[in-house]
Amino acid sequence: MISQWHLRAAFAQRLSDMYGREVPAYTTLVDVSREVNEDVLRARGADAERLGSIGRVTAERHGAIRVGTPEELRQVARVFGALGLRPVGFYDLREAAASAVPVVSTAFRPVDGEELARNPFRVFTSLLTPADPRFFDPDLRARLENFLDGRELFPPELLDLADRAEGAGELSEADAERFLHLAVRAFELSPEPVDQAWYRTLERVSAVAADIGGVRSTHINHLTPRVLDIDELYRRMTERGIEMIDTIQGPPRWKGPDVLLRQTSFRALAEPRALRTPDGSVISGALRVRFGEVEARGIALSRTGRARYDRLLARVDEAAAGLPRPDRDRLARDLWAQEIPDSEQGLAAQCLAHFTYHVAPDRPRDGSRPPAGLGDLLEQGWIRAEPLVYEDFLPRSAAGIFQSNLSEEGSRNNDRQGAAYDSAWLSGVLGRDVLDPFDLYEEQQNRSLAQVTRELGLDGTPV
């Protein structure tokens, strides 16, 4: 029998192989990421694996897909449920983007620490929002919803196998092979001709809307390797003649610990596609929808730490308005140095980031009582802190990647009231809870603190 995590690992590998065939520049991205990781490991030794073993980092991928209807999203949840992935986080890219990105999103990923260590494959999944009148007037909304209702993204056989895998936690070897074949095929780029006029109609609203609702299938939009030095990767990709977007999204590079997530990508490529013209003939054309993203993951910030991060971003935006990119980056580094502790211990002592805590083997043995406070326990060597990797996403960064790969900003009528979507709505659509990422980190941290409290005989959980 093939377990869910083996299914997950095999699916991620086959998806990567398929995407490499379809987008050769992705293979270059993977190769350069591997080279950078090997160089960082040689230079930094064990420190390079502080946020995950090199085996995990090398195998790690996050995919991105886009669907059009709540029913399609429910079906996606069934397919990914077979792989042990659960919906975590709600991301409203409509509000995070200055241009027209009419989607809300969640990420399907493992949630158990052991499962993440085995294979942390995750899929950022976006849902089109036809009900939002800022993007779609009543006539276009009706036409779009009618188009979407007439397509089938996932065959019934795939969904049946997915339900069996999720229910039993495994599949037989033959069923696993069939499931993997159908699942990978569902995300391949379809050779079916694209209705040129309909695609262009949606593209005037948003290139993202056209990519979702202008075709009769879905496809993997990007597949993202993880790298240990994203600035070095950016430099090496540029040297190889790959056109990168003009920035690295997320926190600045600075002397302190890596936190949250930094992302960049090569620009969307003009890929040959068959286009059906209004007179019914099929011509050769090209569409720019897929790109190669890469990410560097840092420590998961707490709610308090994330609030500080968001305030710093707002201050950078205000102070750096109109400044060239290098000046903006310098300003961000200066603010980070003023407001964010430059050590893991500092982050832990101020409860700005999430760690698991463990009693130190070489803790004091002189008969003294351990202190009650978390900062004192760390400083005096009673416990050690292991950082929790940030496993999730940043809506502003995701929107920034989307925007940087659009040739036009599309159209958005801000005089209209936007349609309301939130995590509770998404949970109802999926028929399964969309989990709060902060809760997941807090639960893992709190379990470790409870264990520390028992082992040291403390009167209460250290804070």
UniProtKB/TrEMBL annotation:
It comes from the Bacteria. InterPro entries: HGLS (IPR009770), YdcJ_bac-like (IPR047869). SMART domains: DUF1338 (SM01150). Its cofactor is Fe(2+). The keyword Cytoplasm does not apply. The keyword Oxidoreductase applies. Its EC number is 1.13.11.93. Keywords: Dioxygenase, Iron, Oxidoreductase. It is an enzyme of class 1 (oxidoreductase). GO terms for molecular function: dioxygenase activity. Belongs to the 2-oxoadipate dioxygenase/decarboxylase family. This is 2-oxoadipate dioxygenase/decarboxylase. It comes from Streptomyces angustmyceticus.
